[in-house]
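Methods, example record. To illustrate the input and output format used throughout this study, we show the complete record for beta-glucosidase. The sequence lines were provided to the predictor; the line carrying structure tokens was produced by it.
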Amino acid sequence: MTSSIENFIRDLLAQMTLEEKIGQLNQYQARDDNAPQVLRAGLAGSVINAAGALTGQGFSASANVEQHNALQQMALESRLKIPLLFGRDVIHGYRTIFPIPLAQAASFEPSLAEQAAAVAAREATAEGVNWTFAPMLDIARDPRWGRIAEGNGEDPYLGAQMAAALVRGYQGSDPSAPDRLIACAKHYAGYGAAEGGRDYDGGEISDPTLRDVYLPPFQAAVRAGVGTLMSAFVDLNGMPATANRYLLTDILRGEWGFDGFVVSDWKSIQELVDHGIAEDEADAARLALHAGVDMDMVSGVYLHHLARLLDEGRLTLAELDEAVLRVLRIKARAGLFERPFTDPQRAVRDLLTPQARQLARQLAARSMVLLKNHAGLLPLHGLRRILFAGDFVHARDELFGTWSPDGRAADVTPLDEAVRANAPKEVDLWFIPNRDLALALAHQAEAVVLLLGEHPSRSGENANVSDLNLPPGQIQFLESMAALGKPLVAVIFAGRPLVIPRVIALADAVLYAWHPGIEGGAALADVLFGHTEPGGRLPVTFPRATGQVPIYYNRKNSGRPVTEDGEFRYRYIDLPDGPLFPFGFGLTYTQFEYSDLRLSSPRLNGKLEIQATITNTGRCVGSEVVQLYVRDRVGSLTRPVRELKGFQRVHLQPGESRRVVFTLSEEQLAFTRADGSYGVEAGLFQVWIAPHSQAGLQGEFRL
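The corresponding predicted structure is encoded as:
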């Protein structure tokens, strides 16, 4: 199959004129009267279906299948009949909107995320989209950055597991299947390190940190067969990613063997001029193509300048041909030459199926993180009158989260209706958005559930915040309600970790629901009333105050680590040391005990088994996400205090125990060493089997 594709695309390349070659490297926004002329002349390799650079911050009308087929027909009327790729931001669902990616990562269940991506692929392809700009794989350590919502959090291991699962979900084992689409791993690389959490700002990342923290999810995507990558906006160590040959060619192609193509982010080639690294648009085009960017997203600089650059000898024909081959290769793998059109009847069958909605509901509940549950207030049992109050009581598309341009409010059962439909019938439920009225009625309620958080427009692209507290007025409302002395549950909808110490102090129970998607209301009812458990664990550290940021679990120790006694007991004189909640944290409706840690050997020779007994010591069925952490005690470069190396979800009946076994390989201990090479170093290692990154049973071994 591979050899036949290679022969086909090379034969096709040999027939192409220079103008047709350049056209394949142009992604066109077909929203003007010139579309028929451009497409019939073969001057576009792809059409992007987006309203503009900030499509993720609002509704973007999507071309339907008939429009996609009509545009494809125009392309097939070109001389060589090369089909188009139709690109669309299908980030966490198409019409069936799943929880935001950060929430999906909180599930610690890549298989569910894989299923969600497969649903998104089936729905998007039913309307003619065959290329998604997902998954976003940027490691994010600063929750002020709005786009933390779109990724998998702060950890490279969890990020890599999610990356591979999402690529498999979108592309399947055969990306040419009618219900699969080409994935795009973005934003390569270091975009999540933007200074101050300010989108588009530069980032300084050492090469060991780049390779050991920021690149593993992208490498996992490449190993999973991802078809395309997107270059990042970020100025990385003085070289914008879109002009960074070290990233795009030396590492991506040279070290990892990637043979798909790289697309720029929105006008990021043109923006090399603003970065101050290119003199003009022609110079920007030269830098980007030479670095390894194969397709220009909408700026038109390749279309307008590549021919002259070749004529002047500033680019070689070999560079151009290689970029064209990469684009043609992915089109061939996507099956577009054999099946360029979409069956118009598919949308009727494949959009918003009951199975897709059920999966969205399951994933939303599995993503919700229980942060506090004083005296076992949750699940809500034995209550007759419950007041629901706050800004989200009638929420519909507010549940979607950022980057859901194809979600429709009409598809969502309003939160109050969904909760009422899934609550015990004997419970009287009141849903009051008005704060004054809610405070008045609370006196008659037996418990209060406050629905707090941030609107989706407050997270996502260029939606950064300088203050991680809840939006204005919500803490005051919480304080007023808490003063009444009623049992109080706080549910928080958000696209990022927020600073919530007052919420934790005042509420009896706190559930972090993220932006849970189309079935968020039903999933919330499932969790609140005990139909299912809150299954999430934090994929990112929660700070006590905005001033702690950046804060993350896999930090370095320093020469003066904080200790409970001694001279260095704190890092801030006005805050306790450490986070409000650590990476990996999450409560359930039962309790678990960890015991009897055993290692198969005191030395790791190839592989080592680490195991412990996990016991459900509570009164109800529950699941625990058991996590494996390692610390390399001495290295040629300083090493993190802990690194996640594995996790397993175990389901246990009350009183049931199970041995959980992890196998640790030598490869998992490798890192970028002082001489720049990648490998392991002999020495002492600590290991934990733990419920989160600040606890657990500890052992040690030598390599």
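Annotations derived from this record:
The mean pLDDT is 96.
The domain at 3-348 is CATH 3.20.20.300 (TIM Barrel).
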